[in-house]
Specification:
single chain; seven-stranded mixed sheet; Rossmann fold; alpha/beta; 27% helix; 2 domains; 407 residues; elongated
C-alpha cells in the first residue's frame, strides 16, 4: 500500500482497504464516511482502494482538525492522556491529542499519490457537524471518535444512513465509553472484534412481519441452528424462517395450502437442508377443509397468507375471499416431527395453541419460540403458561400479532 500508518496499524489499514474492495465487489451502494480523520491514513486506504480498482465513491471525513475534546461522565479515561480531568468534563475544547489540520491531511494525500476530487473534509465538533450531514446513503461508516458522546452522535445520525449490507468499523471499540455508545444500537454479541477494532455488517431487510427474524437472529448471535416453521406459507412473505435459512440454518417447513406450498417448493428445491411438508398440523389426523385465502397484503402479491381450518377465523377477514380446499391434516405425532429445533415458529390462524401443546419443547431442544396470538390476551396467558413449563420464560419480543419467548 502507498498509504502509511500513523495512529493506525498496517493491519487495520489493510482491513479498511479490503472492506472497501468487498463493497465494490458486492455492488453495495453509498459513500464512504470516517468520523475522526486524524492524519488521514484510513480515508487514504479507502481512496487507494478506489483508485486501484478504477472506482469512484464520495468520501466524507469528519474531524475537529484540532484534536480530541475532553472526556465525559460516560468515559473511563482520557484518550492519549489517561486520567479524566473532572474540571473539564465533557468540554468541547481540544486536549491537543490527535491534532492534525485539514492541510496536513491533504498534504498526506498528495504524498501518497491520491486524488482528492471526491473527498470532502468537514471541520468541527461532531456534535455540531454530524447532525447537519448530507452524505446520503453510506456503504461504509468508520468511527474513530474515542469518546462516548462522539460515538453516540455518529450512531444516532449516521448509522440510520448505513445501507443494508453496509459495513460499520469502530476503531476505538477497546474503549468503554465507545463500546457503551455502540451497544445502545447494536448488541455486543453481534460485533466482531478483529485487530482490536469492532466490525459489523448491517443486516439486509428482514422478511418477517415485524422484524421477528431480526430479534431471533440477534438472540442466537449469529450461531447456525435448526428451525421448525409451522405455517410457512410461501417461504418469504412475513416469513420467520427465510432469513435464518439464508444464513445457513436447516429446518422443517410445514404448509397446508397447495398454492403456497408450490411456491415454497420452488424456493427450496435445491436446498437439501430444508424438509418440506404439505400438510396441516391439527388435533386430529385425516382429511380436512382448508379455507384458502386470496391476496391479503397490500399489493395483492401474497397467496394463502391467512388461510385457516377454522370457519370462525374467516369472520376476522371480511375483505378477503376464501376458497375451500380439501387437504391432509395430521397431529404432531402422526406427522413424525422429531429431532432438534433451536427455534420454532407457529402461525396457524386460530390453531396455534392446539399445535403448541402437542410439542414437547424440552425434548425438541427448543431455545426460542415465536407464536401468533393476535391480541387475544387469554390465549397469550395460556401460551406463556405452557412455555414456562418448558423453561421458556423470557419475553424477547411482544407485539400485537406475535410473542417470542426464550430460555
Amino acid at each position: 500500500m502507498k498509504v502509511t500508518p500513523h495512529y493506525s496499524t498496517q493491519e487495520t489499514l489493510q482491513f479498511t482497504y479490503d472492506s472497501v474492495f468487498g463493497i465494490l465487489q458486492s455492488n453495495i451502494p453509498g459513500c464512504l464516511v470516517e468520523c475522526g480523520v486524524a492524519s488521514g491514513s484510513q480515508i487514504g486506504a479507502m481512496q487507494e482502494c478506489l483508485q486501484t480498482n478504477g472506482a469512484k465513491r464520495e468520501i466524507y471525513g469528519f474531524d475537529s482538525f484540532c484534536g480530541i475534546p475532553y472526556a465525559g461522565d460516560r468515559d473511563t479515561e482520557q484518550p492519549g492522556i489517561g486520567p479524566i480531568d473532572r474540571s473539564k468534563l465533557g468540554l468541547l475544547e481540544t486536549t491537543g491529542v490527535s491534532a492534525h489540520s485539514k492541510e496536513c491531511v491533504l498534504s498526506n494525500f498528495e504524498k501518497w499519490g491520491l486524488k482528492t476530487n471526491h473527498l470532502t473534509l468537514i471541520e468541527g465538533w461532531f456534535e455540531n457537524t454530524v447532525p447537519m450531514a448530507k452524505t446520503g446513503p453510506i456503504a461504509m461508516l468508520r468511527l474513530d471518535g474515542d469518546l462516548y458522546s462522539s460515538t453516540k452522535v455518529c450512531m444516532k445520525h449516521l448509522y440510520p444512513l448505513l445501507v443494508p449490507n453496509g459495513i460499520l468499523i469502530i476503531d476505538d471499540y477497546i474503549l468503554q465509553g465507545c463500546r457503551d455508545a455502540i451497544h445502545e444500537y447494536i448488541p455486543e454479541r453481534e460485533i466482531i472484534n478483529i485487530y482490536g477494532i469492532g466490525y459489523y455488517i448491517k443486516p439486509a431487510k428482514f422478511h418477517s412481519q415485524n422484524n421477528e427474524a431480526e430479534k431471533v437472529m440477534s438472540y442466537f448471535g449469529g450461531a447456525i441452528g435448526s428451525v421448525l416453521d409451522i405455517g410457512a406459507n410461501d417461504g418469504k412473505t412475513f416469513s420467520n424462517s427465510y432469513d435464518l435459512i439464508k444464513l445457513g440454518w436447516s429446518g422443517t417447513l410445514i404448509e397446508p395450502s397447495s398454492s403456497a406450498f408450490k411456491l415454497l417448493s420452488i424456493l427450496y428445491k435445491n436446498n437439501l437442508n430444508v424438509k418440506l411438508l404439505n400438510i396441516a398440523i391439527s388435533n386430529q389426523t385425516g382429511y380436512a377443509v382448508l379455507y384458502e385465502s386470496g391476496p391479503h397484503v397490500s399489493g395483492g402479491n401474497d397467496v394463502a397468507l391467512v388461510s385457516t381450518l377454522l370457519p370462525s377465523e374467516i369472520d376476522r377477514w371480511r375483505n378477503v375471499e376464501f376458497t375451500p380446499e380439501n387437504i391432509r391434516a395430521m397431529t404432531v405425532l402422526d406427522a413424525g416431527i422429531s429431532g432438534t429445533y433451536d427455534f420454532i415458529s407457529i402461525d396457524c390462524e386460530g390453531l396455534d395453541l392446539i399445535i403448541l401443546e402437542q410439542l414437547d419443547l424440552r425434548l425438541l431442544g427448543c431455545k426460542c419460540v415465536c407464536i401468533e396470538y393476535n391480541s387475544d390476551f387469554a390465549l397469550l396467558k395460556c401460551i406463556k403458561g405452557y412455555c414456562l413449563k418448558h423453561g421458556l420464560n423470557k419475553v424477547l419480543l411482544q407485539n400485537a400479532e406475535n410473542i417470542i419467548l426464550t430460555l
